């Protein structure tokens, strides 16, 4: 992923809507382009119809829409909710027949299954794949992977973090090498902050601004065609984006005709609005960036 900061379209700060549903809030807010609930996981609602799911538009336009996660499909009610959001199928731990380890299967087994699925099913129409990894989740104990170069790190939690992140990084690289990136756009993003606190070396990505809590994660957009370099050079990635910006970008990239209710922007456009939505208020993208940069300056003194 470090190499992708130069090769891909890389946004350092994507606002994560991480409220009452924990990890699942990233999926809910991106897919439905709306805020999750504050006190309960919105994705678990049995009454919500997910009417603004962008996946429904892809599905109705002829895309094969699939989701994969190495945890049980019953967790957060994903198996049920994802089908309501327009996915043809949701593959959880048991649907993929993978071996459980800690909370679920390893990311390596997950990616191997997805790669095999693509190869063996001879998919002959456009497809959208949504892959949720898990091996790098806090408290970073779900993998036995270790690299000797991290052994000098004294803080055990930070050491575990570097090990699991490198493991997942390797698995993503291996997976991308198995698929044809021509005419394909890949989005890679985090879901919430790492949970690394209490030291003066590594900066967490959570901030208080105007009495509200803001959380940011990185986003990579990887394209591999003749226009990729041109688009990369035209885009100003040094500003705040949000999860609301991801679904309209995917819809534009898909090439389908669509009408979609969104607060977001096409991230591959050279034009951005000056403001970003968070819990029904407008915030200046520039001011939020200043908050982050000022926090970094204080930390580094």
What attributes does this structure have?
five-stranded mixed beta sheet, three-stranded parallel beta sheet, 301 residues, disordered C terminus, 18% strand, 31% helix, alpha/beta, Alkaline Phosphatase, subunit A
CA radius of gyration is: 19 Å
CATH class term: Alpha Beta
Which strand-content bin applies to the residues?
15-25%
C-alpha termini separation: 28 Å
Output mean pLDDT: 87
User: What kind of oligomer do you see?
Assistant: single chain
Backbone shape: globular
CATH topology: Alkaline Phosphatase, subunit A
SSE layout and pairings?
Elements: H1 4-7, E1 9-15, H2 24-32, H3 54-60, E2 64-69, H4 78-84, E3 89-91, H5 107-120, E4 127-132, H6 156-176, E5 185-189, E6 206-209, E7 212-223, H7 228-234, E8 241-242, H8 246-254, E9 275-278, E10 281-284, H9 285-300
Helix pairs in contact: 5-6
């Amino acid at each position: 992923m470090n190499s992708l900061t130069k090769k891909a379209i890389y946004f350092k700060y994507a606002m994560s809507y991480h409220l009452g549903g924990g990890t699942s809030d990233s999926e809910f807010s991106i897919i439905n382009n709306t805020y999750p609930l504050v006190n309960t996981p919105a994705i678990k609602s049995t009454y919500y119809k997910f009417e603004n799911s962008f996946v429904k538009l892809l599905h109705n336009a002829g895309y094969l829409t699939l989701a994969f996660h190495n945890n049980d499909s019953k967790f957060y009610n994903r198996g049920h909710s994802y089908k309501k959001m327009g996915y043809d199928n949701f593959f959880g731990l048991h649907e993929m027949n993978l071996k459980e380890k800690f909370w679920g299967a390893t990311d390596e087994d997950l990616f191997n299954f997805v790669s095999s699925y693509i190869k063996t099913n001879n998919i002959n129409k456009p497809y959208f794949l949504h892959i949720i990894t898990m091996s790098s989740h806090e408290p970073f104990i779900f993998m036995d992977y270790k690299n000797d170069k991290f052994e000098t790190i004294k803080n055990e939690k930070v050491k575990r973090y570097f090990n699991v992140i490198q493991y997942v990084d390797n698995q993503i690289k291996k997976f991308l090498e198995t698929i044809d990136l021509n005419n394909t756009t890949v989005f890679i993003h985090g879901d919430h902050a790492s949970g690394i606190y209490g030291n003066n070396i590594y900066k967490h990505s959570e901030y208080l601004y105007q009495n509200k809590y803001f959380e940011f994660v990185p986003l990579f957009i990887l394209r591999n065609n003749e226009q990729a370099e041109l688009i990369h050079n035209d885009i100003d990635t040094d500003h705040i984006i949000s999860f609301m910006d991801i679904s309209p970008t995917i819809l534009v990239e898909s090439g389908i005709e669509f009408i979609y209710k969104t607060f977001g922007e096409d991230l591959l456009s050279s034009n951005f609005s000056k403001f970003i939505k968070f819990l029904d208020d407008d915030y200046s993208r520039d001011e939020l960036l200043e908050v982050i940069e000022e926090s970094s300056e204080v930390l580094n003194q």
